Amino acid sequence: MPRALRVLVVGIDGVRLDTLARVPTPHLDTVADAGFLAPVTVAESTPTMSGPCWATITTGVRVTKHAVWSNDLSGHRLGVFPDFTTRLARQDGRRTYVAAAWEPLVTVADGGPMFRHPTRLTHHAPAADTPRAWEDADEATVRDAVTVLTHEDPEASFVYLGAPDETAHHLGCGSAYERSVVAADRRLGRLLTALRARPSYEEEAWTVLVVTDHGHRDEGGHGGDSETERTAWLACAGPDITAGARPLRPVLHEDVAAQAYAALDRAPDSHWTLDGTALPTLPRAVLLDMDGTLVDTEPLWLDAAREIAAAHGRTLTDEEGAGVLGRTCADTAAYLRTLCPRAVSSPHLAADLEDTFLTAVEAGIHLRPGARDLLDRLTDENLPAALVSASPRRVVDAVLKTLGAEVFRTTVADGETDRSKPHPDPYLEAAARLHLPPAACLVVEDSPTGVAAAEAAGCRVVVVPSAAPIPAAPGRRVLGSLAALVDAWDTPARR
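The structure corresponding to this sequence follows.
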């Protein structure tokens, strides 16, 4: 059963990127380690104030469209360019939730609200304009958000924490500010715990984005053009992002809303004229299947299986032929033994299969469309690659003469792990040889057997089906060709 897609955006106001390097933020680190944390430069046309920056973050369009130019939102165009929670609720009927203490975000104060029509909203205004009152307001905000996130079912949520920004305004970016950032991280931790405490959590696929709007001058304050004021950041983790992924282009504030839509598999309407897009990222390593993925050898393998079966009096049906795809020689031999009871023992069948298949491979193979471009791109990016095959070592080495062994840091063939596909062992072995966790690796596969092995290992997967159809799923993208993967990694600058 497919997992339900959910997204949580946590906005923490006014947190300097360099502060994150000095203070302990283990919960933000958890998000960053599971995906990425990248700097964001506030656009030159955008005033470094909360109103304009949060409007860009939540709508996915720049200041010239949403027309929020200051912390007074009067004159805005948020009816034309609504926030992502309003758009999803009003246009798609999705359940959305917003929790915030800063009044212009959720009330009519100062020309608001920025979040115009989420399905559910909680608001705790600070009792006074003091750092302590803002800490109390954030605490109340998170308390309510934890209850909603644990026991209700919002599909898209935004939770705002404002105390770090207010502390910097009153006390500068010293020790009190750093303590406020640490407190905000603890509150983020409670929100993440609330997700994991959901009764349906195991049936859900959550994307989490944590973002700040602007930085601060050392003495506190923002609105100018200094580097510290214009430097923000975004941390993002989700089922389609590998651990430690690298964004392929500079991250922009307007990408946050676009990423939220992508997390829910909602393609933006062209009439929305979003300025942001979902972020293309590179994994830390790519693990590639061979047969049917990089080289068009699946027909040769099927022909070998048909030839061996025919030699033992069995003509394989199409359904039986599909049953050999992605299997090892040993597994296929055992399978053929069930179809050919009078056949010789499985080891003899396996040896005959290997010899027949190797002969066909050595006679000549063709690369799958886009394979060479993909391998060249991996080389250009100096991206570690491994070849992970269910074929015997003799066959792998024969194919490497065409692919180029120098492309791969390591190769794993059948028999070099305790179990082969569909078990996770080959992909676990490849990741270990690259000294990376499986979650940091992207697997490219073509068969259900290989996909099962990769997902059991904990890898993200791109599928380019060859013989059998494979549906998309959280953590698994289905593309029409290897060229589509290369295109997905291309940025406008490269094009």
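Residues 18 and 228 are 9 Å apart (CA to CA).
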